[in-house]
């Protein structure tokens, strides 16, 4: 989608995971090369070498922790590193630890459960994507860090007024009880209030929404709920499917009490009547003596 930040290649006396640095090839060993900044050494394993190198060469590498937690170097430069953000795909999940994302290396990066939603049903699923950067803990181990609202504000783009009533698609980057936040491929930031969704989406999921307001600052309010005509079709099919379970007849119609409709179909009396009217207009059902029947029963 888009990136924030530039490559951090400022010479630092301390080698640290998550950085891209120019280092000097110091010496060769059977399993690769040791690189140095004249103060510390780090191993570049032969499996992480992408081109011919010789002792004395200065090369650019990415520093990370191998599976044993040791600081290592690779010539495979990911698009994400400390203070540089990108979208990363979720490849695994552990209910105690968190989720793991791929940054293009042999070892995946953990996004801690502490940084994920409280309820694990809102955690990203495999295939979802997170907009994030990298950070290290006090032991120098590398972790994923989700973008904050301030970071999103830096990369967002104002939406045009013409977007009103249009359908959009975006990735959920923040979930709250009051609503969901997503950002589109174009960089438009959208807020979906809890009243405009039937279910709370997962963090990192790709969602389609309908724009219901474009603010003066270019931020967007959107809805996950279908348009009235689409909702009518959904409700009509729900009623029809219910009638199929009853051999094409049900003891409900225009005169049925609202509380019964809500209990049986989880919809308002008005929505029920609109959907029923659509079914009758299309010749699929008819009403008689307070009952509704499939038309073929006549």
TrEMBL record:
<dbReference type="InterPro" id="IPR012340">
    <property type="entry name" value="NA-bd_OB-fold"/>
</dbReference>
<protein>
    <recommendedName>
        <fullName>S1 motif domain-containing protein</fullName>
    </recommendedName>
</protein>
<dbReference type="InterPro" id="IPR039566">
    <property type="entry name" value="CvfB_S1_st"/>
</dbReference>
<dbReference type="Pfam" id="PF13509">
    <property type="entry name" value="S1_2"/>
</dbReference>
<dbReference type="InterPro" id="IPR040764">
    <property type="entry name" value="CvfB_WH"/>
</dbReference>
<dbReference type="Pfam" id="PF17783">
    <property type="entry name" value="WHD_CvfB"/>
</dbReference>
<dbReference type="GO" id="GO:0003676">
    <property type="term" value="F:nucleic acid binding"/>
</dbReference>
<dbReference type="InterPro" id="IPR014464">
    <property type="entry name" value="CvfB_fam"/>
</dbReference>
<feature type="domain" description="S1 motif">
    <location>
        <begin position="16"/>
        <end position="76"/>
    </location>
</feature>
<dbReference type="InterPro" id="IPR048588">
    <property type="entry name" value="CvfB_S1_2nd"/>
</dbReference>
<dbReference type="Pfam" id="PF21543">
    <property type="entry name" value="CvfB_2nd"/>
</dbReference>
<dbReference type="InterPro" id="IPR036388">
    <property type="entry name" value="WH-like_DNA-bd_sf"/>
</dbReference>
<dbReference type="InterPro" id="IPR048587">
    <property type="entry name" value="CvfB_S1_3rd"/>
</dbReference>
<dbReference type="Pfam" id="PF21191">
    <property type="entry name" value="CvfB_1st"/>
</dbReference>
<dbReference type="InterPro" id="IPR003029">
    <property type="entry name" value="S1_domain"/>
</dbReference>
<comment type="similarity">
    <text>Belongs to the CvfB family.</text>
</comment>
<feature type="domain" description="S1 motif">
    <location>
        <begin position="163"/>
        <end position="225"/>
    </location>
</feature>
């Amino acid at each position: 989608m888009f990136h924030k930040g530039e490559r951090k290649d400022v010479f630092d006396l301390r080698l640290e995971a998550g950085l891209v640095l120019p280092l000097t090839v110091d010496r060769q060993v059977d399993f690769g090369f040791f690189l140095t900044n004249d103060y510390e050494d780090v191993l570049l394993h032969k499996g992480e070498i992408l081109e011919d190198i010789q002792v004395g060469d200065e090369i650019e590498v990415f520093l990370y922790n191998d599976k044993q937690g040791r600081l290592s170097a690779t010539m495979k430069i990911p698009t994400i590193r400390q203070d540089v953000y990108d979208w990363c795909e979720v490849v695994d999940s552990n209910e105690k630890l968190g989720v793991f994302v791929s940054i293009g290396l042999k070892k995946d990066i953990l996004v801690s459960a502490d940084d994920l939603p409280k309820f694990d049903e809102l955690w990203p699923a495999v295939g979802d994507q997170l907009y994030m950067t990298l950070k290290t803990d006090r032991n120098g181990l590398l972790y994923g860090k989700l973008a904050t609202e301030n970071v999103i504000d830096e990369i967002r783009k104002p939406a045009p007024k013409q977007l009103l009533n249009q359908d959009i698609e975006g990735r959920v980057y923040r979930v709250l009880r009051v609503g969901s936040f997503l950002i589109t491929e174009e960089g438009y930031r959208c807020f979906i209030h809890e009243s405009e969704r039937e279910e709370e989406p997962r963090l990192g999921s790709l969602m389609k929404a309908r724009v219901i307001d474009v603010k003066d600052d270019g931020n967007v309010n959107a809805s996950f709920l279908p348009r009235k005509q689409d909702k009518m079709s959904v409700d009509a099919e729900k009623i029809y499917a219910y009638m199929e379970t009853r051999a094409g007849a049900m003891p409900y119609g225009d005169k049925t009490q609202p509380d019964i409709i809500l209990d049986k179909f989880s919809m308002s009396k008005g929505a029920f009547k609109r959907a029923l009217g659509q079914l009758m207009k299309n010749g699929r059902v008819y009403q008689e003596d307070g009952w509704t029947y499939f038309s073929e029963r006549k």
